[in-house]
């Protein structure tokens, strides 16, 4: 485990030692010393830093305490919003999994064929959504906008009678 901080090196060592991050074979190095390292020395240190970055849940890139407050605030906000959501976390995961699966299936229903390689290349500036697709999207949007309006009006009239 690695700890990167903007604190004084002695403070950093004390905190890291207290939490068991800095072991006897571990290293603690300040920024200026790090920048003066040769390429071979950096090659020995950087893989350890990369492992630390990849295993971290949150990486704060600046040396500002307000960033930590902002990260904590966003974390609390997400937690509270999940609690107020009408779906539980497990239900949200199921919805996400189903939607991702169906989307992937929709894009991969036809297997690739050799004829695809014989087609003319697609234009670099070509549109992924064709005019026919735009027509269908707009038609569905209009239909779904108008249909619920009629249902609400019909329900209101029926309710008043």
Automatic annotation (TrEMBL):
Gene Ontology terms for molecular function: metal ion binding
Name used for this protein in its record: Putative cation-transporting P-type ATPase
Domain Cation-transporting P-type ATPase C-terminal: 85-146
Location(s) in or outside the cell: Membrane
Keyword list, A-Z: Magnesium, Membrane, Metal-binding, Transmembrane, Transmembrane helix
Gene Ontology cellular component list: membrane
InterPro entries per record: ATPase_P-typ_cation-transptr_C, ATPase_P-typ_TM_dom_sf, HAD-like_sf, HAD_sf
Taxonomic superkingdom: Eukaryota
Pfam annotation, one family: Cation_ATPase_C
């Amino acid at each position: 485990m690695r700890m990167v901080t903007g604190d004084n090196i002695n403070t950093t060592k004390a905190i890291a030692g207290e939490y068991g991050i800095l072991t006897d074979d571990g290293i603690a190095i300040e920024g200026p010393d790090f920048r003066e390292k040769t390429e071979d020395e950096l090659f020995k240190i950087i893989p350890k830093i990369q492992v630390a970055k990849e295993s971290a849940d949150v990486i704060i890139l600046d040396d500002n305490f307000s960033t930590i407050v902002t990260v904590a605030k966003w974390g609390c906000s997400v937690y509270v919003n999940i609690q107020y959501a009408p779906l539980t976390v497990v239900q949200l995961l199921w919805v996400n999994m189903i939607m991702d699966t169906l989307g992937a299936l929709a894009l991969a229903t036809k297997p690739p064929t050799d004829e695809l390689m014989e087609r003319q290349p697609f234009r670099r500036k070509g549109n992924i959504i064709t005019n026919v697709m735009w027509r269908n999207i707009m038609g569905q949007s209009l239909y779904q906008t108008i249909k619920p309006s009629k249902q609400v009006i019909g329900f209101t009239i029926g309710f008043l009678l």
